[in-house]
Design a protein that fits this description.
By secondary structure, this protein is mostly helical. The chain has 4 helices and no strands. This is Hydrolase alpha/beta.
Length: 96
């Protein structure tokens, strides 16, 4: 939401904005599919103790939210997830 406010209040300072997983907050609008919500709310496995399970969870989520108009490249997502883990997996970081 911070990026959206910045873009609306200071449009000259924002070249572009891609809002992902965002909504209006209006309950009359279509809601997230229950299976996607389940994937989002289920705790992710800890990659330090079970890397394979963490990868499986991440790939399942990415596959489910991917656009069906394009082929899903599982190897690309596997590589991306591994880069994210190696760069710095800090589960509590989203709370900052």
């Amino acid at each position: 939401m911070i990026a959206q406010i910045l873009a609306s209040e200071h449009p000259a300072r924002v070249l572009s904005l891609t809002s992902i997983m965002s909504g209006t907050g209006n309950p009359a609008m279509p809601q997230t599919a229950p299976d996607i919500m389940g994937l989002m709310l289920r705790p992710s496995p800890d990659p330090a103790s079970d890397e394979a399970c963490y990868l499986s969870h991440g790939i399942a989520f990415a596959r489910r939210i991917a656009d069906t108009a394009y082929p899903f490249d599982e190897e690309d997502y596997r590589t991306l997830i591994m880069k994210e883990i190696r760069r710095g997996y800090v589960p509590g970081g989203f709370g900052r």
